[in-house]
Amino acid sequence: MKNPFIINGIVPDEYFCDRIRETNKLIKCIGNQTNVLLTSPRRMGKTQLIRHVYNQNEISENYHTFYVDIYSTTSLHEFILLLSKEIYTQLVPKGRQALDVFISVLKSLTGSFGYDPMTGLPVFDVRLGDIRSPELTLSEIFSYLENTDKPCVCTIDEFQQIGKYPEDNTEALLRTYIQRMSNCVFIFAGSDRHTLENMFNSPAKPFYNSVEQMFLDKIDREVYVDFIDDMFARNGRIISRNAAGYVYDLFEGHTYYVHQTLHNAFAYNEPDVEISEELMDDTVSDILQDKENSFLTQLSLLNYVQKETLIAIAKDVKASEVTSVSFVKRHSLQSPSSVQNAIRHLLRLQMITYHIEGRTKVYSVSDRFLQMWIARKY
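Above: the chain sequence. Below: its structure as tokens.
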């Protein structure tokens, strides 16, 4: 029996929860050749939404679709490597003719990829050192996208990373190429909402006023609870409506954590057992226990002040005025200045995130499971 709460890979339409409005909006933007900025909290489901859109017939049959996650990149060279590899990988199943066109356009990387002379099979063997003229290679990639037989959709996830590249002109360079494109729609996605919105809303930035903006929020509670109930029923399982609502509320509708918990509850309980709120709590406890070694490793990389600051934020769940005397005293921290330095480090590690309420930054632990584990452990 297939577990309907899929947490890896592409989610088939029948197991995809809602996002009807967002799906339709992205499809319309693509059809209207409108570039999009898609932001959301981490693990709210933006990658699955993009994959879902790519899988719709009106997109899959009429467009070449590419997706690159540049979160781990630190330079323009790495960006180019990932983008060229993604295009190559997507073209391999389309046959030699399609691949030959791409190979012929990327003259600056000739010899680094193509076909194995012995087997004739496609081979991608580009290394960072092979990208000797990044601007030229980038120009060739965009030239390919502009001249393909079908229009293209290219998603660049965690797009805010380009602002950290040592090459000062990366934003301006990409904007120069992208604004000339008429055959490719770009979806710029990411979880660092404030950085991304600054990149696209500031008049001083190259990408100013160049996209349609979308924010992916949590799925409506009643819609999600109905989906949970239906998925269990269709697969011969039982869950109380209270339990479905309970797991939604526990994670405030945060898609990944709700789905992970339901995935485990479905997998590790007997088919004739009704899933209750108590069983949901047991499932969460099991998940936290399984992740404990990983969490301990993460905390071991922090110094004392950073660790204590993270614990304080986890205990508050949503922590505001973190450099105030009251916050410092309440959590027995060293000083406002030491907390401020710790906050900077934790943000760099993306162990915490923040949103703005009014004019106040409200901090929370990025990983909801880590937050729960810390709150229980400390």
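The domain at 302-377 is CATH 1.10.10.10 (Arc Repressor Mutant, subunit A).
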